[in-house]
Amino acid sequence: MAGYQLSVCAEMVFLDLPFIERVERIHALGFGVEIWDWANKDIDALAASGAHFTSMTGYLNGNLTDDEGIVQLLQTAETSLAIAGRLNCQGLNLHGTGLDPQGLPVKPVEVVTGEMWLKASDTLRCVAQLGERAGRVFTLENLNLAVDHPGTPFARAHDTLALVEAVDSPALKMNLDLYHAQIGEGNLIELIRRSGAAIGEIQVADVPGRMQPGTGEINYRAIARVLEEVGYRGVVALEGWASGDSNEALAQFRDHFTL
Question: What is the pLDDT of residue 1?
Answer without folding.
Answer: 58
